[in-house]
Amino acid sequence: MRRIGIVLAILIVSMGCASTRGSIHGVYRDANMDFGQIQNVAVMPFANLSRDSNAAERVRGVFMTMLLASQSIYVVPPGEVSRGISRAGIQTPTAPAADDVIKFASIVKSDAVITGTVQEYGDVRSGTALATVISLQLEMIETHTGKVVWAASSTRGGVTMTDRLFGGGGEPMNVVTEKAVEDLLDKLFGN
Known about the structure:
The protein contains 6 helices and 7 strands, in the order αβββαβααβββαα.
């Protein structure tokens, strides 16, 4: 009986280690930056490292909508961002150089540019359990100097112990995405 208890304890501990639900990563915030002066922000197309070819555009859309809904800052419309990228001649809009950011910002009239990378998006499996996960990293670049003034990442979703024991599949992808974006907005606005 004691062996069964030990085996169950090891099993439960090992199951808990693989979950990514609610993990929190660090935040970089430039202490010399006055974030109160940022009134207009342009969100560049996100880089996509996930298996889902549409993940970056989906996550960018959710991020832009939730940022605009915060009513804290004006978000340059995606069409204006595309026009600015074209007029500035930016070759890699997912990772623009400092000079490109400065030139781009003068065209679209933004105080900051946000870039992002979708590292994971979609299903993750652990044994027989399946759930959704998103891992997202964002950076804010100040447009007068082209310097990164804020950076943060968030991972949400993943297989929980409940999913492993009772099945399930985790939360829907849109819910997991909104939670990750909400976490990043909290980190941006210092909540």
